[in-house]
Amino acid sequence: MTARGQSLRAALATRVVVGDGAMGTMLQAQDPSLDDFENLEGCNEVLNVTRPDIVRSVHEAYFAAGVDCVETNTFGTNLAALGEYGIPGRIHELALSGARLAREVADGFATPDRPRWVLGSVGPGTKLPTLGHAPYAALRDGYEENVAGLVEGGVDAILVETSQDLLQTKAAVLGAHRALRKLGTALPIITHVTVETTGAMLLGSEIGAALTALEPLGIDVIGLNCATGPAEMGEHLRYLAQHARIAVSCMPNAGLPVLGKDGAHYPLSPEELADAHETFVREYGLALVGGCCGTTPEHLRQTVERVRGLDLSPRDPRPEPGAASLYQTVPFKQDASYLAIGERTNANGSERRGRRLCLADFFRPEDSGETDVIEMQVVTVGNRVSVAANEIFAANAYRDYMELHGLSVQLTEALAEYWHGRVRTELGMAGADPDNLDAMFRTEYQGCRYSLGYPACPNLEDRTKIMNLLEPERIGVNLSEEFQLHPEQSTDAITIHHPEAGYFNAHGGPS
């Protein structure tokens, strides 16, 4: 580990460290041109190369306010986010340049008695692997490349932030570990999850599930950022303070956004943010504090005056060993019985599972001389929603972004299911459908729809065959070099008409 990394780790173990605030809004406030963005409007990370003066000025403003550390302008240097702009090959370049800029500014403010640190920002990207938006391994490898660039650029810690999906968070953390091992170094890894006003992460994970799932991965700090202001974070921080073996952190928004005549704004004043951090530091023993959307150098200046350098308030965490699902943690200790962890399965096996059927087995052989039918479809809700979502993302309105993104993805799925139903009707398969939802969920009907990239059709390269046959370029859908559909709010599928074809599940074979 570098000397700076060691000093940061030591500081987090003994005193309160103050980080910076919002990055995107401060960059946008300087009105970069479309040429500055290389015609990739909203891709703030490109400014690391085209307008380093703008990025440098943001770091300087926060250090001048007295913070201990700043985050690199690399929130979107990952496979998913840069893939949206068609530049996934620039992950390492933009991460490296962003880290070097922050390092130069930090070194200019550092003194022998006052080190200044750089946190390598690793954002979540635009894909949720739990929902099948992108393969886990591809995302993990992209994060590895991202972190390698950050480390080579001189960061002192890795900050995995604004995490909405625990599987995505794991991909980022494990990708970071892989990069650090390959480079022969070790740095603190800080992990921030984002809890919505609903009291859970976007996919429904409670804070206990996040702690149970992430703490064993070898992280140094766990905390919260984005989505809400400090008022909504209190109970989640209390849980972390009571149960986390590692340091706890908090970087809230400047309150919940309020819609006014001039658009949305964040209402929390600098004094109110400082009040909240002072309370959190005293009651929950926070080691790292800062700000997210809507916070400014003035917010952080007042926070520095209140809490920077204070000794950590003592905590007496009581870890609760357990296992976590996507949604909640379950303690191993049970009052009335033992805890059974397992998966429902058909222990007796099944005839169809024994035949190792794949989708090809449900069609007539090519040499049979008989005609067969297959339905293929590609649907999209178009590119305008992607453009709007990217604009919201660039403005650091992450909660609004995730809501629009989730809605558009579900609308795409609804459109796909509409055409699935039309095809089944035209092929005469819909007449004997069950009349209750439970049977429908068990796929007790003929004509299942299979999407590419899932277990039944895992090879994404097969998309080229569908693209060649259907020519979906006519509706604005294209295929990337990684065999991903663009716009993102698009999906493809095939429908199998054979009456025995079904989805494979945990019961031991096709349902």
Explained architecture:
This protein is of the alpha/beta class and 511 residues long. 38% of the residues lie in helices and 13% in strands. The protein has helices spanning 3-14, 24-29, 47-50, 52-64, 79-84, 91-109, 136-152, 166-183, 207-214, 234-243, 270-284, 297-307, 351-354, 384-394, 398-426, 437-441, 463-470, and strands at 17-18, 69-71, 117-122, 157-163, 189-193, 221-225, 247-251, 258-260, 263-265, 288-289, 322-324, 329-331, 375-380, 448-450, 478-479, 485-486, 490-496. The strands form 5 sheets. The protein has an 8-stranded parallel sheet, sandwiched between helices. A 3-stranded antiparallel sheet has the order 13-17-14, sandwiched between helices. It has a two-stranded antiparallel sheet with strand order 8-9. A hairpin with a 5-residue loop joins strand 15 (478-479) and strand 16. Helix 4 (52-64) packs parallel to helix 6, helix 11 packs parallel to helix 12 (297-307) and helix 14 packs antiparallel against helix 15. The longest helix is centred in the C-terminal third of the chain and has 29 residues, at 398-426. It is globular. The termini are far apart. Residues 344-354 and 505-511 have low confidence and may be disordered.
Keyword list:
alpha/beta, 17 strands, 3-stranded antiparallel β-sheet
In whole angstroms, the N-to-C terminal distance is 52 Å
Largest sheet: 8 strands, parallel
What structural class is derived from the secondary structure elements?
Answer: alpha/beta
Could you tell me the strand content as a percent range?
A: 5-15%
Per DSSP, the total helix count is 17
Rg for CA atoms = 25 Å
**If you average the pLDDT, what whole number results?**
87
Question: Which regions are unreliable across 5 or more consecutive residues at pLDDT < 50?
Answer: 344-354, 505-511
Shape: globular
For the secondary structure, the number of strands is 17
Oligomer: single chain
Widest sheet, order of strands: 1-10-7-6-5-4-3-2
Q: What is the helix fraction of residues, given as a range?
A: 25-40%
